[in-house]
């Protein structure tokens, strides 16, 4: 098996500080490097659709929510885990591109409802197919069992760090 940049870093630390257990770097360093590489690949794909990653996230969230009536801007912000200001900026761009509508809820004037336009729905349907194919390509070095093991391991780590969703949170997103 070949060596990667993290192998070199860990070896260098072993020489520089022999008593230091740098083994966490073998996992977290690789996750960090992998994240940068994957982000670059995703950015390239989304640009083919004229989208930024955050814009795709908004469109995909609206699409998978399944309601043709859309969802509130607040629920959209919670599901994307970014500030409401960031969601507002993304929505501004998506409205300008004609992919979403943003309307005041007639039953509650303080609530804004965001929905996909037919053009936005068509775009996200095409983009998600390409996105999943891109993810398949990125993970091609792993077989089905390795992917399942890695997914389970990463879930365990995420849950241990408090990244948990409960059924009430999931119901709030629609």
From TrEMBL:
InterPro entries in the record: HTH_MarR-typ, Tscrpt_reg_MarR-type_CS, WH-like_DNA-bd_sf, WH_DNA-bd_sf
Highest taxon above the source species: Bacteria
Pfam entry (one): MarR
Keyword tags: DNA-binding, Transcription, Transcription regulation
Domain HTH marR-type: 24-159
PANTHER family linked to this entry: TRANSCRIPTIONAL REGULATOR, MARR, TRANSCRIPTIONAL REPRESSOR OF EMRAB OPERON
Stated name of the protein: MarR family transcriptional regulator
Natural source organism: Actinocorallia aurantiaca
Organism taxonomic ancestry: Bacteria, Bacillati, Actinomycetota, Actinomycetes, Streptosporangiales
């Amino acid at each position: 098996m070949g060596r990667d940049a993290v192998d070199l870093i860990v070896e260098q630390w072993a020489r520089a500080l022999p008593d230091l257990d740098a083994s966490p770097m073998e996992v977290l360093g690789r996750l960090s490097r992998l994240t940068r590489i994957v982000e670059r690949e995703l950015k390239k794909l989304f640009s083919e659709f004229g989208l930024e990653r955050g814009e795709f996230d908004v469109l995909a969230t609206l699409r998978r929510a399944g309601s043709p009536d859309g969802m509130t801007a607040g629920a959209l912000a919670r599901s994307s885990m970014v500030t409401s200001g960031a969601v507002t900026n993304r929505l501004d761009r998506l409205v300008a591109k004609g992919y979403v509508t943003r309307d005041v809820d007639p039953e509650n004037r303080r609530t804004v409802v965001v929905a996909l336009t037919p053009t936005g729905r068509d775009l996200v349907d095409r983009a998600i197919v390409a996105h999943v194919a891109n993810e398949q390509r990125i993970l091609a070095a792993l077989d089905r069992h390795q992917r399942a093991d890695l997914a389970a391991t990463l879930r365990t780590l995420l849950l241990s760090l408090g990244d948990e969703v409960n059924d009430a949170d999931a119901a709030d997103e629609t």
